[in-house]
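Quick one: structure tokens for this chain, please?
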Amino acid sequence: MSNDSKNPLVTVVCSTYNSKATLRCALRSVLNQDLADFEVRVMGDACTDGTEEIVAEMNDPRLHWFNLSENIGHQYGPNNEGLRRARGRYVAFIGHDDLWFPWHLSRLVQYIEASGADLVHDLTANIGLEGVENVYGPPHRQSDYTRVFFPPSSWLHRRELPDEIGFWWSPDELAWTSDFDFTRRAAVAGKRLSFVPSLGVLKFHSLVWKSYTRKGEPPQETYLRAILESPRDLCEKILSELAAQYGQNSQWQDKKPIGLAGAETAFAAKGLLKAFVRELIYLYGHDRWPVGPLLRRRFKRLCSKKRAVRGLAPLKENKF
């Protein structure tokens, strides 16, 4: 894991917009890594709440602040600027809502160097209002990386990868999210994506926790304290909860009331229909007319709704 004296081993890119409380937690989890050879590019999307003060008060030379002059309203812009400024051999991302376990970077670096992969990722536990909800992991088969999403906070990739497959694309050009599009393009281009069997990330969806940045203590504070005090105990607790959920779901399959079984059958039928339509789209081509324009319009409307929750202006409708 040696590196030259000028550049760090890893560049961590953290895009943020007016979320000082959660950003402080995210950066503390980064600075708590057991691998210390990194720089952090904190990229503000034209922040106006004094976010730079959080970076300054941590007083760590590995933290570098940059604020875009114009709000883009999506992480693709700040992330691309962070990639252009990256000096590390590898690049990792952390969302300003998310937290890392101390071993996250070291295990990813060890795995990518041993395997020769282009991009690696570990397990991400989804934290909801009632605690641990589910987990993002690997697909069943290597070829399924073209269809499976896993959060950027779990990634580590070679710095050269964006030069080879393209940087993050604007959601205006896509029928799905920019983060999924990046890993999908990597898989389609024949790049090697690999899974590290380790829980490394806690993810907090901002659309679920609608008001945590405006009042009270954000939920990240409680989990961060546990990470700093006893990370292995927290990891074991989360994995145990996920295993218990799996066991409950497995047992419940054989003992469901007939009404619930009927409702789930109807739900499964709808899912089957959606899967059939999805397969037709893949076969036809998601970029071809008229499917491409329709999918992009639908996705843009979804993005506008999310922007409204975050206090941003809706995206302008394009005519396709």
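Residues 226 and 234 are 6 Å apart (CA to CA).
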